[in-house]
Specification:
Radius of gyration: 24 Å
CATH class of the largest domain: Alpha Beta
Shape: globular
CATH topology of the largest domain: Fe-only Hydrogenase (Larger Subunit), Chain L, domain 3
Distance between the termini: 38 Å
Number of strands: 15
Number of helices: 20
């Protein structure tokens, strides 16, 4: 199985191994004790220490990763509490914790502060473009060398761009640099800390950290408990799931049922509902004089608007997400079912907390680990039919531009759409969105599709397959599907 190149390879392997061991521990006769032993089984006495200074540091970090795998925040876990006790608490838990991310301070490198500095390559040139470019008066030339006043420097990086000798460099902190809203920064001890009042759960910090210190809290124990209790647990697979494993979508359904799920629904079915509602809403808004409308299917973008760009709310579609509509369908057809959404990103865990139709969210890393733990060979599974047929457009929702194309497909000719695609939330794209909201107009178009992850959901931080082969699989599935026009 290929690993998503957005996530550091070794940290992905560690997370998957811990998840596999947790699942096997749950299925064993002594969950608590076998969970306690995970750090010791992974780093037994006398074994090599591949990443850290000593075996004890390695075990401490593996312990913290196991706590996150059990669904708890590292920040609130006491060092003296045995893993066996935390595992027991996970069995007694009735609902997941509120925030989906946690920071492993044991794994955090404590990077040096982000700053711009002048290297020895500075030639003290006559042109002095760095000094003339700086808007804040932070650069002067002393003794033939440029000097930056840290009290005045804003870390804008303009001097870095104009230096002809590349003598000025910018030191970045990967997690801070990746966050589009400034929600993660160093605490008083120099470790990363997430401000959840600002956090939009996009997961970019988790993908960016080369030490894997930002970790997603898993809900896999909660789902395993429901299945073990004999409840009807139904999986809802987002379109991006089709591109993750070396099998057909119908084989994937069979493989998921082998995990213990009673049935599997395609979230593309809900995407078709989203498409129809957004197309209708777009027409109504333009007829009422609106200059533009944004899509509303990305949970990370929705959090961005709610927390950072409230002035965008009048322009954001009121249509619900594909997950919402799919869960609504499942609950209507199976009122007693436990619903589990299979997600490519962190943000859906936040969205699910506010959706009474969605009980749990598992990411693709967790599903992959589960299949490894049970030795399920997806490519060897028989095919199973989905109960409902989804459209090509709905199945293409996971690719950047797919949502806008789906809406366009249902628009009348007299209502032209001019799509604008925000392919991944960055500091710059957030500034652009704020400008559109403030001015009440987007000079590039009238239908803005926003995807928090570059490449769309297929590039989510919790995917397990590299983007290009995943895209090839999804495209093949889309091409063999009927258009949504044929359903209307």
């Amino acid at each position: 199985m290929a690993i998503n190149t957005n996530t550091p390879k070794q940290t992905s392997h560690l997370k998957r191994e811990i998840l596999v061991r947790l699942i096997k521990a749950f299925l064993s006769d002594n969950f608590e004790e076998n969970t306690r032993l995970i750090p010791y089984d992974m780093r037994p006495k006398g074994s090599d220490v591949p990443y850290r200074c000593c075996i004890y540091k390695e075990r401490a970090i593996l312990r913290d990763r196991t706590i996150a795998g059990l669904g708890y925040a590292i920040e609130e876990a006491e060092d003296s509490t045995p893993l066996s006790e935390i595992a027991k608490n996970a069995l007694d838990r009735t609902q997941p914790e509120e925030h989906p991310l946690t920071v492993l301070t044991t794994a955090c490198k404590g990077c040096v502060p982000s700053r711009v500095y002048v290297t020895d390559l500075c030639q003290g040139c006559v042109a002095r473009p760095c000094e003339s470019t700086c808007k804040f008066g932070a650069i002067t030339v002393k003794n033939g060398k440029s000097v930056i006043d840290p009290a005045k420097c804003k870390n804008c990086g303009m001097c870095v761009q104009v230096c002809p000798y590349q003598a000025i460099q910018k030191i970045i902190v990967p997690c801070e640099n990746a966050c589009p809203v400034g929600a993660i920064a160093k605490d008083e001890e120099g470790h990363a800390k997430i401000d959840f009042d600002k956090c939009i759960s996009c997961g970019k910090c988790a993908s960016a950290c080369p030490f894997g210190a930002v970790h997603e809290k898993s809900q896999i124990i909660d789902v395993l408990k429901e299945i073990k209790a004999g409840k009807k647990v139904i999986a809802m697979i987002a379109p991006a799931m089709v591109g993750q494993l070396p099998c057909t979508p119908k084989q994937l359904k069979t493989a998921i049922q082998k995990l213990g799920f009673a049935d599997v629904y395609e979230v593309a079915q809900g995407a078709d509902v989203t498409t129809k509602n957004e197309a209708k809403e777009f027409v109504e808004r333009l007829e009422n004089g609106a200059e533009f409308m944004t899509t509303s299917c990305c949970a990370g973008y929705n959090e961005l608007v709610d927390k950072h760009i409230p002035e965008m709310k009048p322009f954001r579609s009121d249509t619900k997400t594909p997950m919402y509509y799919t869960a609504e369908i499942v609950k209507k057809e199976h009122p007693d079912a436990i619903t589990v959404f299979f997600s490519p990103c962190v943000a859906k865990k936040r969205e699910a907390l506010n959706d009474s139709h969605v009980d749990y969210v598992l990411n693709y890393e967790e599903i992959g680990a589960w299949m490894v733990a049970l030795n399920i060979q997806v490519a060897e599974c028989d095919e199973s039919e989905f109960a409902a047929e989804s459209s090509a457009e709905g199945r293409n929702f996971c690719v950047t531009g797919g949502v806008a194309k789906a809406v366009q497909a249902l628009l009348p000719e007299e209502i032209p759409a001019h799509p604008v695609v925000i392919d991944g939330l960055t500091k710059q794209s957030v500034r652009d969105l704020k400008k559109y909201a403030k001015n009440g107009v987007c000079d590039l178009g009238n239908l803005i599709e926003i995807m928090a992850c570059t490449g769309g959901c297929l590039g989510g931080n919790s995917t397990v397959n590299a983007f290009k082969p995943a895209l090839k699989q999804v495209t093949g599935y889309v091409n063999e599907s009927k258009s949504i026009k044929d359903q209307v």
